[in-house]
Amino acid sequence: MKKNYSYIGISFIILIFGIWAIPKIVDHYSEPDLAVIGTVPDFSFTDQNGKTISNSDYKGKVYVAEFFFTTCPSICPIMNQNMVKVQNEFYGNPNLGIASFSIDPDYDTPEILRDYANSYQITNPNWHLLTGEKVKIFDLANSGFNLYVGENSEVEGGFEHSGYFALIDQEGKIRSRYDEHGNPIIYYDGLETEGIQMLIEDIERLIEN
């Protein structure tokens, strides 16, 4: 019986290509690149331990940024309870940092921030609760991150701000995943379980790169 060797050869090539290509296709659709939203501008503030912290302290680390204040009566407690979950998910990993910028620096001194850190069981040495000149912190939020903060005597607590977290890579670039329509989500919802899970997954992806 005469064998069709050319057919067998072609089939073998298709099989080999398929084995090589399938993981590539799966990876392409399940692990798309994270969007680059922008670059965090230079900053320098004082943390809960009285230490000056700047961009250079986060270089080479993946970190999460938020804007909050310690006397916030509404969303801040939820945000920081969720941020502690992120901290604990990466317990002992030196490649994760967190930057919590106080929008009420007149009240939130390093001593106040240290007590706040203790009350929330903040243990990651790379989680810095930062205070400094209000004008500079507001400018960093509104112009640097495009995360609105402001003063408003008519709202509870006297300040307005969002509940979003920003994800920053090792080079200081703000990153995010894409939604189902191919648009970057830009920031992660710090108030919702789904947003926190997405954030944890994307931190892992950046750290592994």
From TrEMBL:
Disulfide links within the chain: 72-76
SUPFAM superfamilies xrefs: Thioredoxin-like
Family named by the database record: Belongs to the SCO1/2 family.
Gene Ontology MF, one: metal ion binding
Keyword Transmembrane: yes
PANTHER family given in the database record: ELECTRON TRANSPORT PROTIN SCO1/SENC FAMILY MEMBER, LINALOOL DEHYDRATASE_ISOMERASE DOMAIN-CONTAINING PROTEIN
Name under which the protein is recorded: SCO family protein
Keywords, sorted A to Z: Copper, Disulfide bond, Membrane, Metal-binding, Transmembrane, Transmembrane helix
Residues given in the record as Cu cation binding sites: 72, 76, 161
One Pfam short name: SCO1-SenC
Family annotation (InterPro entries): SCO1/SenC, Thioredoxin-like_sf, Thioredoxin_domain
Bilayer-spanning residue ranges: 7-26
Residue intervals of the Thioredoxin domain: 34-201
